[in-house]
Design brief:
Length: 150
């Protein structure tokens, strides 16, 4: 951001006075004159000429040709061949083998054995012992002292 010279108005002061700040002048002047600002021109000119702007071309060309955009290709090719995309493979293999994916294994085994998963244990153990879990301690201590919890 540029420093203001002595006696120069800030952008907010200009807006309050009904003027436009320097950084928006050229685009606003062009819009008032019925022209399009240069930042919009190239895309509009292409659309008027029946072409597509550069940022849309590659995906549209692929879709018109019946292909899929490059960011979809690998997953779709695998699905067509009957394989699963890489991000599904390991979970699918485990399900087919009758196992559960790694992220669920430990919790499910504990629940089947009647235990609680590790992320629940500490709070439950404290409640069973008549204590308060650590995540409520600080608030309770503040209330006991007469402060308000944050």
């Amino acid at each position: 951001m540029e420093k203001l010279r002595v006696g120069e108005k800030s952008a907010l002061e200009k807006l309050y006075a009904g003027e436009t700040p320097r950084y928006s002048n050229s685009a606003l002047e062009k819009l008032r004159a019925g022209e399009t600002p240069c930042c919009i021109k190239s895309a509009l000119e292409k659309l008027r000429a029946g072409e597509t702007p550069r940022w849309r071309n590659s995906v549209l060309d692929q879709l018109r040709a019946g292909e899929t955009p490059c960011w979809r290709n690998s997953a779709l090719e695998k699905l067509r061949v009957g394989e699963s995309p890489r991000w599904r493979e390991s979970a699918m293999k485990k399900f087919r083998a009758g196992e559960t994916p790694r992220l669920r294994n430990s919790e499910l085994e504990k629940l089947r054995d009647g235990e609680t998963p590790r992320w629940r244990n500490s709070g439950l153990e404290k409640l069973r012992a008549g204590k308060t879990p650590c995540w409520t301690n600080s608030a309770l201590e503040k209330l006991r002292v007469g402060e308000t919890a944050r």
